[in-house]
Design goal:
Elements: E1 4-10, H1 19-28, H2 47-61, H3 67-73, E2 90-93, E3 97-101, H4 102-115, E4 124-127, H5 138-148, H6 150-163, E5 166-168, H7 175-182, E6 189-192, E7 206-209, H8 212-219, E8 224-227, E9 230-238, E10 240-241, H9 246-257, E11 265-270, E12 279-283, E13 286-291, H10 295-303, E14 312-314, H11 319-327, E15 338-340, E16 344-346, E17 354-356, H12 357-367, E18 373-379, H13 386-401, E19 409-413, H14 417-425, H15 428-434, E20 437-439, E21 462-466, E22 482-486, H16 489-498, E23 510-511, E24 517-518, E25 540-541, E26 576-584, E27 588-591, E28 594-597, H17 602-605, H18 618-621, E29 640-641, E30 648-649, H19 651-660, E31 665-668, H20 681-688, E32 691-696, H21 701-709, E33 713-717, E34 731-735, E35 746-751, E36 757-763, H22 768-776, H23 779-786
Parallel strand pairs: 3-4, 3-6, 4-5, 6-7, 9-11, 11-14, 18-19, 18-21, 19-20, 21-22, 26-31, 31-32, 32-33
Antiparallel strand pairs: 1-9, 1-15, 2-8, 5-25, 10-13, 12-13, 16-17, 23-24, 26-34, 27-28, 29-30, 33-36, 34-35, 35-36
Helix pairs in contact: 4-6, 4-8, 9-10, 13-15, 13-16, 20-21, 22-23
Length: about 775
């Protein structure tokens, strides 16, 4: 029996040859003009310019380039003069396009409106996928969302029309699937206002998640800054078989690298396992299909690279990408660990807690995790391809043939209108419905907390299994007692049928309606539809050909959903004196039987779910600031002491009281602060409510940049042990701002309530441009100064 193995290593300078070199050279040397998408026939991919830039950089560095370096350096604003040093210098890049999902597009477009510019400078799109709540089924949920969110949808549609931004209407599908079907292609550099934008790496693209302010820079025609990424190589060998899927590759990698192991790096997948050819082999007298990595499987792996903190992930171009591009109407585009891969399931409460399926039952019993699976949920941007749905339907059909239905509730989220229409035409939807599933709207839904769940009470301990990408505490259903596990769609389907977490479909038996014992066979399905894709309904709104200068974008001053932005105040010119500690986030704690180091994700800083409705209204959304963070003083959530009154209150309430009394404040946190979503609201809210500085042991990449963009000071302890010196009632002064410079630490004086004090150094990663953002009060303020 063939096995599938992976090897993870830091790529050194010698890499960049073979298949990976062919990938970009074939694209960059293309002679024919190729449109950027079918919606933009007059915008062409400038491969000639990319190739020219790559040749300049290769000659300057005098070494081969890896695949990701070719694409990234090919988009340099100044390939001749740019200082290039992995992990150290900031690159100034010219991305090809911008994509924004509706929850983050609101603030991005509000910021773009504030810039005063008439049109976007690069092709850009808005995708309505985040504001649709899963409740009773796809069509009714969509109609309800259109009614509830009419004000926001109208704003986004009219702003898109005025400023030249394409608009994908609600019901179109999830942003990442739409990008894969229409906008990703080998060699493109795309930024998106969602942390799972790297999904596009499955088509040989460099797609990077950013905050809205970064998107505004690119839409304004300003070079975009990115710290020069390190490169991590993952070599794949062998072939996938049986119950093992591409999802298991990234689940295993997450277990190896952890949630911050990829920070500051691009993950490049390579090796014969990427381009292996399908064949059949014998096992136990039956046929066993060996499968190559298909495009949507590669996209799944890249998508969940966000869960290891990677800047992005990418696969080399191969014939499977060529086939997918043709099927979607784009045929013109040209430290080692080695383990046998088995089906995995990761969780609960963190996506890097990896378990082989053979072990999860015993592990769950040992830790007291509920074995009964209450709900199985498949789909989302991570796993909603045609083949994902087909393999899940393959499992479901076997159960139906034996007279069984799901013991757990079961939901299916199509990734796009194209996928929904195609799986309905080809019968997959009927099979999944017959086994007990409910097809939800083409949207993010429960994956981002848009789930009106009613089968358990808040605080009730229970288990759900999803094919999503994240499983942080309370993320999916706002219930902190829900144990969420992540697996492949076929494993989720099998567990929903069995109804228990300790069912391993590779070895365990089910009981048919007639009492017969049977095993599920490894699922199989077509990679792409034999009849091509059914596009379904047309849900795209083109920007008007004549431009939008005569159009208006209205925002009511009494709206609770939308609010025009006011500029933040500039730096006053001196040190920041006597900042009050607002909250010191707990460094470690026990969560439902798991010892976890202190997590303060963007879900903790700015919760999603029901709060998504306020993403266009900064003052209202700020009422969720840090309400999920754990206070080290009392292990409480959203319960901190107001040092002016001596009373305890919610974090946003205390922050507002400090601001009203002219008292600026600081947050102190632990490792990987701000991991997770790209949402810039987690940076905007602290700034809006009077915050000046965030001091932690380390930051997640996107959140650190978002804080800088809004005029905040993200600082790290030079000595991580200094975290323990800070008490919840301290006052902190930040010294050295008059001589603030790249590479030069700032100092701090910590005054304790007992009259003693501590002094130590704080590091930062600001470059000269970013220091100008801080001094101007925000990157947007600085943009206006330069106009």
């Amino acid at each position: 029996m063939a096995t599938y193995c992976l090897t993870v290593a830091r790529l050194q300078l010698a890499l960049g040859q073979g298949v990976r070199r062919l990938h970009v050279s074939a694209a960059f040397n293309a002679k024919a003009k190729v449109s950027m998408s079918r919606f933009e026939p007059s915008n062409f991919v400038n491969y000639e310019k990319l190739n020219e830039n790559v040749n300049i950089v290769r000659k300057r560095l005098n070494r081969p380039l890896t695949l990701s370096e070719k694409i990234v350096y090919g988009h340099l604003d100044d390939p001749v003069g740019q200082d290039i040093a992995r992990g150290r210098t900031y690159l100034r890049l010219r991305p090809d396009r911008v994509a924004m999902q509706d929850a983050t597009a609101q603030m991005a477009m509000l910021q773009f409106i504030s810039s005063g510019l008439p049109q976007v400078a690069v092709p850009s799109t808005i995708h309505c996928d985040h504001l649709i709540e899963a409740q009773i089924g796809g069509a009714k949920d969509l109609a309800r969302a259109k009614d509830i969110n009419a004000e926001v949808y109208n704003f986004l549609a009219s702003a898109g029309a005025k400023y030249g931004v394409g608009f994908w209407k609600p019901g179109s599908g999830i942003i990442h699937q739409i990008i894969l079907e229409n906008y990703a292609y080998p060699g493109v550099l795309l930024i998106g206002t969602d942390s799972h934008t790297p999904n596009g790496g499955g088509l040989g693209s460099i797609c990077i998640g950013v905050g809205g302010a970064d998107a505004v820079d690119v839409m304004a025609g300003i070079p975009w800054e990115l710290k020069c990424p390190n490169v991590i190589g993952v070599k794949l060998t062998g072939k996938l078989s049986g119950w093992t899927s591409p999802k298991d590759v990234i689940l295993k990698v997450a277990g190896i690298l952890t949630v911050k192991g990829g920070t500051g790096a691009i993950v490049e997948y390579h090796g014969p396992g990427v381009d292996s050819i399908s064949c059949t082999g014998q096992r136990e007298g039956g046929l066993l299909t060996y499968r190559p990595l298909w495009v949507l499987g590669m996209a799944t792996i890249c998508n969940m690279g966000a869960e290891i903190g990677a800047t992005t992930s990418v696969f080399p171009y191969n014939h499977r990408m060529k086939t997918y591009l043709e099927k979607t109407g784009r045929g013109g585009h040209p430290g080692n660990v080695s383990q046998m891969l088995k089906p995995h399931i990761n969780g609960p409460f963190t996506p890097d807690l990896a378990h082989p399926m053979a072990d999860i039952g015993a592990t769950a019993v040992k830790n007291g995790w509920p074995l009964q699976v209450k709900v199985g949920l498949i789909g989302s941007c991570t796993n909603s391809s045609y083949e994902d749905m087909g393999r899940s339907a393959s499992v479901a059909k076997q159960a139906l043939d034996k007279g069984l239905k799901c013991k757990a509730a079961f939901t299916i989220t199509p990734g796009s209108e194209q996928i929904r229409a195609t799986i309905e035409r080809d019968g997959y939807s009927k099979i999944l419905g017959d086994v007990g599933g409910m097809v939800l709207a083409n949207a993010c839904g429960p994956c981002i907390g848009q789930w009106d769940r009613r089968d358990v009470k808040k605080g009730e301990k229970n288990t759900i299994v999803t094919s999503y990408n994240r499983n942080f505490t309370a993320r999916n259903d706002a219930n902190p007692a829900t144990h969420a596990f992540v697996a492949s769609p076929e494993i989720v389907t099998a567990l929903a049928i069995a109804g228990t977490l300790d069912f391993n479909p590779e070895v365990d038996y089910l009981t048919a309606a007639n009492g017969e014992k049977f095993k599920l066979k490894p699922p199989s399905a077509d990679e792409l539809p034999k009849l091509d894709f059914d596009p379904g309904q047309d849900t795209y709104q083109h920007p008007p050909a004549e431009g939008g200068s005569k159009l208006r974008v209205d925002v009511s001053p009494t709206s609770t959903r939308l609010q025009l932005l006011e500029p933040f105040d500039k730096w006053a010119g001196g040190d920041l004196e006597d900042l009050q500690i607002l909250i010191k986030v707990s460094g470690q704690r026990i969560i439902w039987g798991l010892f976890r180091r202190g997590k303060c994700t963007t879900d903790h800083i700015s919760a999603a779910g029901p709060w998504l409705k306020f993403r266009g209204h900064l003052d209202n959304i700020s009422n969720n600031m840090l309400i999920g963070a754990v206070n080290i003083e009392n292990d409480g959530v959203n319960k901190i002491k107001n040092q002016l009154t001596g009373e305890y209150g919610g974090v946003p309430d205390v922050a507002r009281h400090y601001k009203a009394n002219g008292l600026s404040w600081v947050v102190v946190g632990d490792d990987n602060y701000g991991e997770g979503s790209s949402r810039e609201h987690a940076a905007l809210e602290p700034r809006h409510l009077g915050g000046r500085c965030i001091i932690v042991k380390s930051f997640a990449r996107i959140h650190e940049t978002n804080l800088k963009k809004q005029g905040m000071l993200p600082l790290t302890f030079q000595n991580p042990a200094d975290y323990d010196k800070i008490r919840p009632d301290d006052k902190i002064s930040i010294k050295g701002l008059a001589t603030f410079a790249p590479g030069k630490p700032l100092s701090t004086v910590v005054k304790h309530s007992d009259g003693t004090k501590d002094e130590f150094q704080l590091n930062h990663t600001f470059n000269e441009t970013q220091i100008e953002w801080f001094q101007a009060g925000s990157a947007l303020n600085r943009m206006k100064e330069l106009q």
